[in-house]
Amino acid sequence: MQTLNGKVAIVTGAAGGVGRGIALALAHAGARVAIPDIKPADDLVAELGAENVLAKICDIRDSSQVNAFVDEVVTKFGTVDILVNNAMASALVPLTETSDKDIELAMSTGPMATLYFMRACYPHLVDGGRIINLRSGSEVTAIPNFVTYIAAKSAIAGITRAAAREWGRSGITVNAICPFVLSDSAAAEFEKHPGQLDNILANLSIPRLGHAENDIGRAVVYLAGPDASYVTGTTISVDGGAAFMA
Are 59 and 12 contacting, i.e. CB atoms less than 8 angstroms apart? Predict the structure, then answer.
C-alpha cells in the first residue's frame, strides 16, 4: 500500500546499509526521498528515478551543509514531511583506548547531526511532520568496545523524548526505532570475536538478523504514516526479541 503518496522524506546515510533499506521502503510506500551521505547513492537514483530521489554528498557534522541540503530538498520537492536520522559513525575500541577523536566522531555524526537536521527541518514539519531517530538496543544490553556508539545512541534517545514533548503541540511526532541489523561496523567487530554473533542469535526469540527494508524500513513507514498519528515519544524495538536479553 502506498500510504505515503505525496510525502517527502529525508533519510540520512542512505547510500547503503540500513538507511538504504529505509529509503527503499519509504519510496515503495509512495514517498519521494532525499539522501544526504558522504558516499554517492547513484544506484538508488537509477532504481527509483531522479524525479523521486535527491542524493547529495553532505557532511552531516557541518550544520551549514545540513542547512543547505534541507534548503535544496525544499527547492526540489516543496517541503519535508518525514525526517529519518539514520547516519552515524563510530570507532569500535576498548574504553581505555578511546581517543578524543573517537568521542568527537560518534557525537558529531550521532546526536549533534540529529539535532542539526531536526532544527533545520522543523519549519517544514510543523502540522503533520514525522521524525524517526535510530537508537540501539546496545544502550541497554551493551557490547564491549562500543562505548562511544552507546553513548551517542543514548544521547539520541534523550533528544527523541525531549523533542516529542516539546514539539507535540506543533503537530510533529518524534519516535525512535531500535533495530537489530548487521551493520558493516558490527560485522567487522563480530569477525574479531568468533561466536559472539551466534550467541546473540541463539538468545533471540526470532533467531535471525533483521532485513533492512522489509523489517526496519516497514517499521519506519508505519511511524511515518497515518496509522501512527497518535504515537510519539516512544521507541519500537525491531530486533527479534533482543530487548528481552537485557
Answer: no
In 3D space, the residue among 222, 246, 245 whose CA is nearest the CA of residue 26 turns out to be 222
Distance set, CA 13 to CA 23, 139, 144, 232 (Å): 10, 21, 25, 23
Name, in order, each residue with C-beta under 8 angstroms of 71's C-beta and a sequence gap of 6 or more: none
Name, in order, each residue with C-beta under 8 angstroms of 31's C-beta and a sequence gap of 6 or more.
Answer: 4, 5, 7, 8, 9, 81, 82, 224
Distance, in Å, from the CA atom of 28 to the CA atom of 1, rounded to the nearest integer, reads 8
Instruction: Name 55's Cβ contacts closer than 8 Å, sequence gap at least 6.
Output: 15, 34, 35, 37, 40, 41, 42, 44, 45
Q: What is the pTM of this model?
A: 0.93
Residue 163 cell numbers, joined: 523533542
**Tens-digit pLDDT profile for residues 96-135:** 999 999 999 999 999 999 999 999 999 999 999 999 999 9
Active-site residue (options: 116, 122, 149, 222): 149
Q: Is 92 in contact with 138 (CB distance < 8 Å)?
A: no
230 in catalytic set: no
CB contact at 8 A, 117 and 83? yes
**Pair 37, 11: CB distance under 8 Å:** no
All three cell numbers of 86: 539514520
* Exposure letters 42-53 (e unless 16+ CB within 10 A, then b): eebbeebeeebb
